[in-house]
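3.2 Worked example (two chains)
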Amino acid sequence: MRKYLSLLLALVTVLSLSMLAAVTVSADGIEKAANAIFVADSGDDNAAGTTPDAPVATLANAFSRLPNGGVIVLVGCVTIDKTEDHPRVMPAHEGVITLTSYYDGVDYRAKPYGTEPVTPRLSLRNGTADLEFHGDIVMDYLRINVGVNEDAGTIMTNAIITMNYHNLTVGEHIENCYEDPNGVPSSFDLDYSSQGNKGNSGRNCPPILFLGSSANTSDEVRDVGGETITGDYTVNIAGGAWQSVRMGDRDLENLNTLDCHVTLNITGGIFAFWTGLFHSSNLSVMCAAQAATTPNYVCDMTITGGTFYGEVCGFGKSSTNSFGDALQQGTINMNILGGEWIRNFGVDSPPVGEYGGYAFAASMTLLFDGAKVNMKIDPSKMDLGVMDQFTVAGLDGVETTLEMVTESDKIGFFGLDLFFNETYLPLTTGNQPEETKAVETKAVDEPKATETKATETKATETKAVDTKDATGTKDATGTKAAEQTGEKTGIPAYVWAIVGVVVVAAVVAAVLIIGKKNKTKE
């Protein structure tokens, strides 16, 4: 009896500790962790790094001290550039590393700390040379600065962050700033919808996020890549401003092949880049970019929030460089169920109402063999701005389907050779996309006339992708549920911990009562 009681009590302890350990984010920032390293440019890489008064000097050094994961607290400016003094390649690690400036109830973002001349921030002065992570990352309660070139007065655009195929969670408490090393902000007009001034376009200013890898400066050999990427990857974005997010690579001479499952959940944040062009290599979000994909490749993208100045795309253009366009296969599920979609791009942008604010099935310039894109759109949950309309486009050669959650006249269709194989109700009368058949390439291509039936529509036949959520159960749409980011939602973990303790305690009590009765009978 005592043996069973000991085992049950041990189980109570384990359950309680494991549930409480899951509580890492609160209204007071990131909670205290067993492993935490503090970092600031003014620190010393020979310092202990375990207190804010003795930080290490470089982010790479902080990563090297957390091989099994932990928390890195930025208590000052932490610079990433192309020099050896501020390394851009982080050491590989197991477990999850969280980057923050709000830790254990202390918000270091509130004022300069110690001898720091500016408030803490991750300062990316690494245009076209990526900050490389080689493990799972969480970023929250963090200021991200894209540096200002103090001589030219321009922002150092095209700062890049690459995940090298690891999981990423971006919390809702990410703040973007554009300041020089002394903390002097740029006078640049940060209107992401316009071309801006001082030689910068507002859409170019925020960092670019890559799930994969990136070629770097011209003096480095671009012979990386050429691998088959397998496994499951999750990217959750709830905040921050980003030039674009790409599920793939950048400018790799030897293209990688995606044979994996990617889950992209966007619940917030700003996505600044816009072009209005099907063949662009830098749209707001691309579910596959500059990589080959196999028939097994699946990307489940779900958008329920965020602000989009441009377009989202399934199979995105490979690159502006002449590295070749890889064969595209597999399935992309684009669930657009919310968000704010900005269509008035400004004076120097594409004409209002003609370009921008699109969901593209694919870029026109790629090669396809069995590629599929399933679009699911709910206009009733989307803020469509001054134009009050959203444009979708399929592509000849890509099996594209569209499901409208609610009936709407706010969805428009673009294209000649851009079409949907199947169109799902409800759509309002007169707003059906034209279905054009593929024709042989001629000097001048003209679309064939299509026959529109007034009352007949094709049956809905959506193939759900068999994926599982974090708990191992399937949801209704077949896509992985968004992981929690930022402040916890739903029932807090500590509540589950208490419930677990109560339940197990009840079991213990029942066993004791039964044992007592048996002893009495004897």
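3.2.1 Second chain
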Amino acid sequence: MWKERNNIFTYSGLILLGALMLYLAWPPLHLNYLIFLGFVPLLMMENHIRNESAKPGSKVFFVSFFTFLLWNIFTTWWIWYASPGGAVLAILCNALLMCIPFMWFHFIQKRLAKKYAYIALCIFWMGFEYFHLNWDGNWPWLNLGNCWAGQPNWIQWYEYTGFEGGTLWIWIVNILIFEAIKNFKSDPKKSYKIISLSFIVIAFPIIFSYLIKPIPPKGELQNAVAVQPNIDPYQKFSGNAAQQLNTLIRLSESLIDTNTILLVWPETAITEEINESYINQFHSIIEIRTFLKKHPKIKLISGMNSYQEYTKETKSESAHLSVRTGIWYDIFNSGILMDSGQEVSVYHKSRLVPGVEVIPFEHALSFLGSFAINMGGGGGSLGTQKEPSVFKVSDKIVAAPVICYESIFGEYISQYVRKGANIITIFTNDGWWENTDGYKQHVMYAQLRAIEERMFIVRAANTGTSCFIQSDGSLQKTTAWWTEKAIKSPIVLKTKDTFYAQFGDLMGKISLYLGLGIYFIYFIFRVLARLFA
């Protein structure tokens, strides 16, 4: 009894220690190196339970779930500001999903040699992260490779591997340190060798990163202006639309000059609901075009609310039926490219926030609408387009219009690059979570995209952080929280296509299929063993 009680206290302490190290390692804190130790307590508990318990599965699930739960709470608690119910659902579901690859590792431990089990753990986790990017319930905010957003100088090699390379790096070091600790009493020399190896594994990617770090190319004579109007997101859609538009125009006028060719406004900067079939007839568009006629060289990229109407025969899969009018329609979180002329280009956000802009598995789980995080705009699932499209700013400049949440999807942004984009524009609204880690993490994740694609980023936020990001991930001219400001920078065009831009999350794809194959084989062997026991 005393031994069992001691185990409970030990497990509780290790759960808290692991979760705290994972949290402290996460941006925007600057203790990223703790991520190399963050999973060691969990590996220690799994090893002890597996060797000491007759039925270890439920105990391993318990310690892993509560480690992941605390980590999620500590790191993403700020979702609560938008919706308490949505925050609880997001945090619980993500913690449960994180248990899956770790439990798979636990189940196959006794069936594989130790080194192969560790390889399987890395494969399972990277496969899980890739899956988590590409299903209806995607929430890849805590994918491990995102941790290094706080240390862009260490991960310049993301131009080859993307964030999955960072995930693999983290797991390898955690496994080595765990093995060193486990063997310290029985074989100190072996432990010292493993520790030496772990230092090499830590140091080599960092040294390589500094060796390949590029010098960002010189900018064009032409420049871009990003505007941060600092409008309260909770009052934005019910506030004075004309006054908000005047603020955007006033801030733009304060910085544009004869060399300005690109102006970027935040997500849903145009709050008027625009029918795309009659886009040039709306008051906001007319006012903006009047402003742009004073500056005929400038192209504007802005977020807007828009919708399309359909007949029953032409409706999309995501269309909703208006009970009042009997018309089928889609609501979009959109981006628009326009100038002083009548031509416009429109892009529809396609990586939507689960529970906010889209109900996962909507037909089966429509009841989850009551948990949706309230972020303004239309209710229910928004419409999307099948693949990303680019905005041609000039003969030389082609922009990727990336809206808010889309900036955490590296492989998705690579699709813009393959369509000819040579700069990235991110327009976002980060004020939903107040002055917390949420908006800080979001802008830091954009630094990863700059490195992966080796592209210059213009980032315009409603509030939070507007900035320019160079191709080495360095931030320039960052704005402070809750400030009204415009910023300007020369435009820097992409000089090459990276390996990552061409092939995307290759490590994640391979890991997903390998992981499923490994577990399928394990499952078959388990079934056969029971049949012929």
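3.3 Remarks
Confidence is low (pLDDT under 50) at residues 367-379.
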